[in-house]
Design a protein that fits this description.
The protein has 3 domains: about 80 residues, Thrombin, subunit H, CATH 2.40.10; about 110 residues, Trypsin-like serine proteases (Thrombin, subunit H); about 100 residues, PDZ domain (Pdz3 Domain), CATH 2.30.42.10. The chain is α+β, with helices and mostly antiparallel strands and about 375 residues long. It has a 6-stranded antiparallel barrel. A 6-stranded antiparallel barrel has the order 8-9-10-13-12-11. Belongs to the peptidase S1C family. It comes from Neobacillus piezotolerans. InterPro entries: Chloro_Bact_Ser_Proteases, PDZ, PDZ_sf, Peptidase_S1_PA, Peptidase_S1_PA_chymotrypsin, Peptidase_S1C.
């Protein structure tokens, strides 16, 4: 059978081949004249034979800061129990960290947390090189969670350099050095200063009531159990805070706290000198007015309607500064030296931070609905 027009393919074959050839020549011409020729072999791409990490100067500074301070951070072991009568030995009850802050008279002085050394019958400090030294407790203060211990200074070569915790800026580098979990000696964590003006509630006797508001530095550098008492340093390797895991928030991550060195300094001085922190006292048993049911504000307190904050005197200690000044039960303290006293925390803050032993202060009280002022000569709490 024969297709109709069987010779017609000859009419389009040769023109089609010619068109294909012309198209190929056109493409080759375009590729040749375009800038950045894809087939340019005059400047071949060279691959580096080495891969360089990001050389961040800040990381170099961090390394230098850690090297400078790390030798002054020690591990502290708390041993409890033991009796000479039955021959039993003290057993390890816990551990933490500490910072060597000075050497004097053949002794090395170490700052740590009160809760690290609390109830210890024996203390041991382990230097970064593994050397173990018997430690002696000079004194501790549960209010600020600070303690000072000493060890034989022979063989102690590193002392931390004290920095300035009053001039910190949020976002500045913060480096924590300590011994988390009791066996990870010399662990370094890095973060930033999250806040420089935090206060955290402290329940000293664990009765569910806040006894004190402690001043802290907030950081996102990890501070874990065992890090307590360790160093928080700045980018210069200087001590700016004493880490405290006790006041950390267990339910959240990325929030740690340290006691600033400027707040710790007077406590350390008192612990060295007296073995305790001697604070001025008035001699009253105080309760915040806000903690008393409002029906008692009229009877027996007889307070004017505008008085809604203050401290109620529930008891007056015999022969105390308060008794000598004429302060009585159910008086309501609203100010001292013109500074408002709204809660028990305010009262303690004034006494522990602003006042001095033997100082005479003007105390504003309400008694029987009448505003009065009395002068109290502050005593010394023992």
């Amino acid at each position: 059978m024969e297709f109709k027009g069987g010779e017609s393919w000859k009419r389009w074959l040769f023109p089609g081949l010619a068109g294909m050839a012309a198209g190929i020549m056109f493409i080759l011409l375009i590729v040749k004249i375009l800038p950045g020729n894809f087939t340019n072999t005059d400047s071949p791409v060279e691959l580096s034979s080495t891969v360089h990490a990001d050389d961040d100067n800040r990381e170099t500074e961090v390394t230098a800061a850690v090297k400078k301070a790390k030798g002054a951070v020690v591990s502290i072991t708390n041993y409890q129990g033991g009796s000479m009568f039955d021959g039993s030995l003290p057993s390890k009850a816990g551990s933490g960290s500490g910072v060597i802050y000075k050497k004097e008279d053949s002794k090395a002085f170490i700052i740590t947390n009160h809760h690290v050394v609390d109830k210890a019958t024996q203390l041991e400090a382990t230097l970064p090189d593994g050397k173990k030294l018997k430690a002696k407790l000079l004194g501790s203060d549960p209010m600020t969670d600070l303690a000072v211990i000493t060890v034989d200074g022979e063989g102690v070569n590193d002392v931390i350099e004290i920095g300035d915790s009053e001039d910190l800026q949020p976002g500045a580098s913060a480096i924590a050095i300590g011994n988390p979990l009791g066996f990870l000696e010399g662990t370094v964590t890095k973060g930033v200063i999250s806040s420089v003006a935090r206060t955290m509630p402290v329940d000293i006797d664990q009765n569910g009531e806040v006894d004190w508001q402690t001043e802290v530095i907030q950081t996102d550098a990890a501070i874990n159990p065992g890090n307590s008492g360790g160093a928080l340093i700045d980018i210069n390797g200087q001590l700016i805070g004493i880490n405290s895991a006790k006041i950390a928030l267990e339910e959240v991550e990325g929030i740690g706290f340290a006691i600033p060195v400027h707040a710790a300094a007077p406590v350390i001085e008192s612990l060295e000198k007296y073995g305790e922190v001697r604070r001025p006292f008035i001699g009253v048993a105080p309760v915040s007015l806000q903690d008393i049911p409002s029906q008692y504000w009229k009877d027996p307190l007889n307070l004017p309607n505008h008085v809604t904050k203050g401290v109620v005197v529930m008891e007056v200690s015999p022969d105390s500064p308060a008794e000598r000044a004429g302060i009585k039960k159910y008086d309501v303290i609203t100010a001292i030296e013109g500074k408002k006293i709204r809660t028990v925390i305010d009262l303690r803050s004034f006494l522990f931070k602003d006042a001095k032993e033997g100082e005479r202060v003007s105390v504003t009280i309400y008694r029987g609905g009448q505003k009065q002022k009395v002068t109290v000569e502050l005593g010394t709490a023992r």
